[in-house]
Fold this protein.
Amino acid sequence: MVAAGRETDAWVVERPGPMATGPLRPVRKTVPDPGPGELLVEVDVCGVCRTDLHLAEGDLPPRAPGRTPGHEAVGKVVATGPETPGFVPGVRVGVAWLAGTCGECRYCLAGQENLCPFSRYTGWDRDGGFARHLLADARYVYPLPPDERDEAELAPLLCAGIIGYRALERAQLPSGGRLGLYGFGASAHLTAQLAMARGATVHVLTRAEEARRLALELGVASARGAYDSPPEPLDAAILFAPVGDLVPTALAALDRGGTLAVAGIHLTDIPVLNYAAHLFQERTLRSVTANTRADGRAYLAEVAGLPLRVQTVRYPFAQADRALADLAADRVTGVAVLDLRE
């Protein structure tokens, strides 16, 4: 049990702006008490997502002053509020991006809770995992059974993995199809492995030479520059890089009837599209908005049996600002992870 009034370490977004301006600041906070339906989680590790970078730099304006980022947190329950059946102190859990929905709107009732107008998100609406303790709604927490993977390899699955899973579903890749991945960071390197396990041929298109090397090590069919053409027409593509200029490039690479899914929450402006070159022949452009809890459960169940390689770059908790700065400068190959277990 955590003593009342105890303080904990956390990072907060003080003044959003470029990482060179120091938008992230370490602070001390009082450990919160869990209310009805809530869990208090002691964080062991937290993945560092590009969405955290968007929040720090102001592409996503913080929903409250001094918000703590982080939505790929793995830790142990240390206290429970009323109405949290199935959770007891000591249980290992994952706290992910989706933090709450209304449960009553037409989207929630239709199984599309990711489109709920009242949805709330960890590290944006609620304080997240760049802290030693966080509160979470028990209904949106993933119990994590014993696993041979280290917590630092589990954390990226909670967003990078889940959003990649949803993007792959939205891309409508046919069985045995040809998939293009534009950008090859945290989410893409996990999605590539899932797609190949399903029998797909995967082509990677990304600007970073080190990322292209990693892609080839993982077994993709080809790895080229972001604006290059793949060696064959694509049945589907996913845009992970938050670069709108790549949308027409990816659409032009699609075969007839192909689909491009845009996976990011933030994207720079898309240039004017040419109907004949980019959309005719029933090519489809689709966005990806967050995920449902059903997505999370399905993804975690599917990859539990796969020899998934999770490429991590680990940072001590005291260097959270450096982790985001490295992500902004494209110095991270794979997934940056904060380790709070020191």
About this structure: Residues 35 and 300 are 28 Å apart (CA to CA). The first strand starts at residue 7 and ends at 13.
